[in-house]
């Protein structure tokens, strides 16, 4: 067991524990939790052949405790907490699966559900060192009649700030109170004022609602974060007492969900460059400023610490969708907003005529799979201009070869023969090289089309100038989630978030209901503009011939300046590598070699996936605390 403290004002980087094993000192790395609330705890199984343990922590980390627990005590705790997990752990131990035994115990004994956040945070909160700042902050509190008691609580919290606000003002949606609180200026809300007018000579603006309670260190932590950004925001507790643990700057998610919220600062420079248009009704004030900031290309900085308890949202989803759509149309942005499945979703414009899409499918034998996916692409997909390229890796099944002959009669279909030993990345590269479409879509042969608009939804995202790879929502045959985006570091290298959860799982912050940024997506269904694919050299067929090539590709796109987006608007079924079979024996050895290369190349991202909060677990595939 390890307990350690960190600086919440420093860039989030998870510590790495490296164990050197056996006589040769083979390294095994464990990615530890980030000290988001000031401290963190880790429980892990140290293998019996360990000869040396190293800790890579970075500046600001203080090791508070190193301890050991007997194996039987951990098993007893697992039995008390989750009896069936204990049975599963003992089964994995008996069959010699060290990794699954370790992770099953950790998932039961060292991981806490989000709903128990307050209990979890109590043992992790630590006093923090505040860097003095001379940033002049204006706090503007939005209030209505009858909220005098809520306003008093907010003003009390502002009085307790380590970094005092230069000015505090209260904007009333209706009549001013008869006895206004003298700790603040009071005025009627002016919906005709532009965003720049709200800051009133300060360096930064903090918007709050009556009843919001910023933590004593909120302004002190946000102020230095604003130094290299246009806006800075922290995490929050909502009115339901649940945490809103936010990602680093994710403009698509922010536009759709408004996750930035009210533990935030907006810089004077940002407000000055926003269009001088009226902010509008008070209920739309925060939406108006966030929307204008995102459309203006604002840079956001995230402080990964709960900095406020907030009251409810200003707008319910239908009102937010209507207001956001109106502001997007007024800005002439190539995007609209709509309410779908209870969430506000963005609708990107598809040009006319639509760009040609080339679907590349690597395959071998398995008539049941290749026939189904080809039928889905050619006859069940509603898209005006597409071609299908099959890269066949030595099929010998006569039924498959006969099916290919039938497919060749369709002018949209081409079949390439690749007789080399199986190299998935090389097959994909060959297929893209033969493609003539502006957008290429990589598709596994074990994927099934479920709805006709899937390709349209992916192309809309892929043709955006700032977007590189686009991933789809993939479901197992039983309707549970197979792919909702890749978290780098999950499971130690990279993994699919929320696997095997119900297909309609909303995800933390409701992010699985909307298109949003992720670090990577699976090549089982991946769209990308062909010129961007070629610009980064396609898949790395030498380092990652079978595994990790898609994640590596997405990360190289990010390094080149293009973000990766996952969208639920494209939903397909995926049987996940059913045609390849499980990785055992030589396959497992090859997997571990590619995994080691991936870890070495992308260690910095493994230590901090920007779209996955450092307090969340990398052990389980859910959104749990660790």
Major sheet = 10 strands, mixed
CATH fold topology of the largest domain: Spore Coat Polysaccharide Biosynthesis Protein SpsA, Chain A
CATH-defined architecture of the largest domain: Alpha-Beta Complex
Stretches where pLDDT is under 50 for at least 5 consecutive residues are: none
How much helicity do the residues have?
25-40%
> What class would the helix/strand composition place it in?
alpha/beta
- In the CATH hierarchy, what is the class of the largest domain? Alpha Beta
Q: What is the overall pLDDT average?
A: 93
The number of distinct β-strands equals 29
CATH superfamily of the largest domain: Spore Coat Polysaccharide Biosynthesis Protein SpsA, Chain A
Q: What does this protein look like?
A:
- The structure is a single chain.
- By secondary structure, the chain is α/β, with parallel strands linked by helices.
- It folds into three domains: 2-122, no CATH class; 137-344, Spore Coat Polysaccharide Biosynthesis Protein SpsA, Chain A (Alpha-Beta Complex); 357-607, Spore Coat Polysaccharide Biosynthesis Protein SpsA, Chain A (Alpha-Beta Complex), CATH 3.90.550.
- Helix content is 29%, strand content 25%.
- Strands 18, 19, 20, 21, 22, 23, 24, 27, 28 and 29 form a ten-stranded mixed sheet that branches. Strands 7, 8, 9, 10, 11, 12, 13, 14 and 15 form a nine-stranded mixed sheet that branches.
- Strand 7 (137-143), helix 5 (148-159) and strand 8 (167-172) form a beta-alpha-beta unit.
- Helix 2 (83-94) runs antiparallel to helix 3.
- The longest helix has 16 residues, at 586-601.
- The mean pLDDT is 93.
């Amino acid at each position: 067991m390890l307990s350690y403290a960190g600086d919440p004002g420093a860039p989030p980087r998870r510590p790495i524990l490296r164990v050197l094993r056996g006589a040769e000192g083979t390294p095994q790395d464990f990615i530890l939790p980030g000290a988001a609330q000031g401290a963190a705890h880790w429980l892990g199984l140290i293998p019996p052949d360990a000869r040396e343990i190293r800790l890579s922590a970075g500046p600001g980390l203080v090791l508070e405790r190193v301890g050991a627990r007997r194996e039987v005590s951990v098993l007893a705790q697992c039995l008390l907490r989750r009896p069936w997990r204990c049975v599963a752990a003992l089964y994995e131990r008996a069959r010699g699966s060290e990794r699954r035994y370790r992770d099953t115990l950790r998932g039961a004994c060292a991981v806490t559900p989000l709903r128990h956040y307050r209990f979890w945070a109590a043992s992790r909160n630590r006093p923090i060192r505040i860097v003095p700042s001379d940033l002049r902050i204006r706090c503007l509190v939005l209030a209505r009649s009858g909220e005098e008691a809520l306003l008093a609580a907010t003003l009390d919290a502002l009085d307790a700030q380590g970094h005092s606000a230069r000015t505090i003002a209260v904007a009333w949606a209706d009549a001013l109170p008869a006895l206004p609180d003298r700790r603040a200026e009071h005025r009627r809300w002016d919906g005709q004022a532009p965003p720049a007018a709200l800051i009133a000579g300060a360096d930064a603006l903090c918007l709050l609602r009556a009843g919001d309670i910023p933590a004593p260190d909120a302004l002190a932590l946000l102020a230095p974060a604003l130094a290299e950004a246009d806006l800075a925001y922290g995490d929050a507790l909502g009115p339901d007492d649940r945490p809103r643990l936010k990602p680093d700057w994710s403009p698509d998610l922010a536009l759709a969900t408004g996750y930035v919220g009210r533990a935030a600062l907006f810089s004077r420079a940002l407000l000055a460059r926003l269009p001088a248009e009226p902010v509008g009704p008070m209920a739309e004030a925060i939406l108006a400023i966030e929307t204008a900031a995102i459309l203006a290309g604002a840079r956001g900085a995230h402080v990964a610490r709960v900095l406020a308890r907030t009251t409810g949202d200003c707008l319910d989803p239908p009102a937010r969708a209507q207001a956001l759509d109106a502001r997007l149309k007024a800005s002439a942005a190539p995007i609209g907003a709509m309410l779908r499945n209870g969430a506000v979703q963005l609708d990107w414009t598809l040009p006319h005529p639509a760009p040609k899409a080339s679907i590349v499918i690597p395959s071998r034998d398995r008539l049941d799979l290749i026939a189904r996916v080809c039928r889905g692409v050619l006859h069940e997909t509603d898209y005006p201009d597409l071609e299908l390229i099959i890269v066949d890796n030595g099929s010998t099944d006569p039924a498959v070869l006969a099916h290919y002959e039938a497919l060749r009669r369709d002018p949209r279909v081409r079949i390439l023969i690749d007789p080399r030993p199986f190299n998935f990345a090389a097959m994909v590269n060959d297929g893209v090289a033969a493609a003539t479409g502006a957008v290429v879509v990589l598709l596994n042969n074990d994927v099934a089309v479920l709805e006709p608009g899937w390709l349209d939804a992916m192309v809309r995202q892929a043709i955006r100038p700032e977007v590189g790879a686009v991933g789809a929502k993939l479901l197992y045959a039983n309707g549970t989630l197979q792919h909702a985006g890749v978290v780098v570091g999950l499971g130690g290298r990279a993994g699919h978030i929320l696997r095997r959860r119900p297909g309609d799982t909303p995800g933390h912050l409701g992010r699985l209901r909307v298109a949003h940024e992720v670090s990577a997506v699976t090549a089982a269904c991946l769209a990308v503009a062909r010129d961007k694919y070629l610009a980064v050299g396609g898949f790395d067929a030498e380092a990652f011939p079978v595994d990790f090539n898609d994640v590596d590709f997405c990360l190289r796109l990010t390094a080149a300046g293009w973000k990766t987006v996952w969208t639920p608007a494209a939903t397909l079924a995926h049987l996940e590598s059913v045609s390849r079979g499980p990785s055992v024996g030589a396959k497992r050895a090859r997997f571990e070699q590619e995994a080691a290369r991936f870890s070495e190349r992308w260690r910095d991202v493994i230590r901090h996936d920007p779209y996955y909060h450092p307090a969340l677990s990398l052990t389980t595939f859910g959104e749990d605390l660790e």
